[in-house]
């Protein structure tokens, strides 16, 4: 059976350059996305809290990450009409489905930190 481009796109094949699944993988595989989703997995958070808890992220990168996650339907932005205005971010139902896979990756990185560090050191010594 021959797969048409439309079938490929809707069937999802991230190995094809034009497939939308590749953009989704880019989003959820981004280091800042992993950290933002991890924090929001514990509940709603304000921008300032996210920035404080994610060491090394710039204001610009956090803004871009949150906007991308909101556009993709993974994060919901709520503006509370108070003085001063309060904005909170929360995971959507779709965003919450990422928690399991991302926590598994986080756990894997913790469990294999020693092995990876040793491999890096051995590789660097060989150069």
UniProtKB/TrEMBL annotation:
Superkingdom of the organism of origin: Bacteria
Disulfide bond as UniProt keyword: no
Source species of the chain: Dactylosporangium vinaceum
Domain HTH hxlR-type: 19-117
Alphabetized UniProt keyword annotations: DNA-binding, Transcription, Transcription regulation
Protein name stated in the entry: Winged helix-turn-helix transcriptional regulator
Statement: the UniProt record of this protein carries the keyword Disulfide bond: no
Gene3D superfamilies listed in its UniProt record: Winged helix-like DNA-binding domain superfamily/Winged helix DNA-binding domain
């Amino acid at each position: 059976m021959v797969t048409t481009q439309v079938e490929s796109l809707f069937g999802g094949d991230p190995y094809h350059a034009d497939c939308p699944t590749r953009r989704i993988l880019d989003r959820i595989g981004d280091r800042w996305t992993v950290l933002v989703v991890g924090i929001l997995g514990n509940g709603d958070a304000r921008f300032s809290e996210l920035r404080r808890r994610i060491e090394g992220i710039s204001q610009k990168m956090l803004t871009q990450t949150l906007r991308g996650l909101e556009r993709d339907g993974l994060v919901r932005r709520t503006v509370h009409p108070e003085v001063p205005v309060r904005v909170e971010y929360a995971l959507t139902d779709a965003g919450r489905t990422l928690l399991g896979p991302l926590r598994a990756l986080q756990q894997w990185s913790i469990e294999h930190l020693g092995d990876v560090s040793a491999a890096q050191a051995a590789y660097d010594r060989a150069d």
